[in-house]
Amino acid sequence: MKAFVYEYGEWKLKDMPDPKPGPGEVVVALKTAGLNRRDLYIPARRGDDKEAVVIGSDGAGIVESAGEGVAGIKEGDEVIINPALRWYEQSAAPPEEFDILGMPDNGTMAEKIVISAEQIEPKPEHLSWEEAGVLALAAMTGYRALVTRGRLKAGETVFIPGAGSGVATYLIQFAKALGARVIVTSRSEEKRRLALKTGADRALETGEDWQAALSGETVDLVIDSVGEATFSRSFSVLKKGGRFVTFGATTDDRVDFDLRTFFYGQYDLLGSTMGSREELRDLLRLMKEKGIRPVIDSSFPLSRVEDAMTLLSDSTQFGKIAIRITGV
């Protein structure tokens, strides 16, 4: 099979042996995969002295074969990959055995993947193959941050700095589906326009005075994945007693903020990452009920994953980047 790998310090498209299912495993012939920012970090995290690892956390395809002991799944089933490995029930934090698909395990940027049958879910019928292939990681991250950790309620207002990421596009749609008001920010006029089209109620320019712009608004919840560049500014627009959820740091991962203001304001500061299978199933039901579809910026064939990675690295995309593998 063809696979896109990182090997001995190089990205490459490589011929690799077709995988075989062991007990409790299935082989999925992948049609599409999704690129995520974590894929960009693999060289720094893996080093330059190791054999090939297939990158990619998201994917969708058709079950090709199943190993001994697999029940309820058959050849020909259309499925999506759940990249949150070994985290099945919603819990306060992931279990010790939790990991994310796509390093150290071989991931989804390949014509086939062998994976535990516990890590696949039926493909949503209302989604195309490209939409299904970019779904799980960003949607799970956004849903857990918004619903499980952020405890969003209908009628509340959520503030999301950085409107163009894949997670942000899910956050906007999930929040609106749950009856909330959504305010986003972006430097890009085009991203602000697209955020409003996706469902946001307001879209602020990153450089403007957020406190002045939001005079009269009550922000109940902030979901921030930017980090140092927006952290303190986001706190400045949050109501006293409000909730602040962070799940990423695309800028510096260290921040300074005023502890006295924080504890006098009675704020809740919450960390979040990925999500459990239970939360994935909950969000899939919400997407089906509300007709929510992933926002796709662009798609590339497997032979052009490096071009897709350049686009993601430049942060000019709005929504997800899909990788076409076979038959799409």
UniProtKB/TrEMBL annotation:
This is Zinc-binding alcohol dehydrogenase/oxidoreductase. Pfam families: ADH_N (PF08240), ADH_zinc_N (PF00107). Residues 9-323 form the Enoyl reductase (ER) domain. InterPro entries: ADH-like_C, ADH-like_N, ER, GroES-like_sf, NAD(P)-bd_dom_sf, Zinc_ADH-like. SUPFAM superfamilies: GroES-like, NAD(P)-binding Rossmann-fold domains. It comes from Bhargavaea ullalensis. SMART domains: PKS_ER. It comes from the Bacteria.
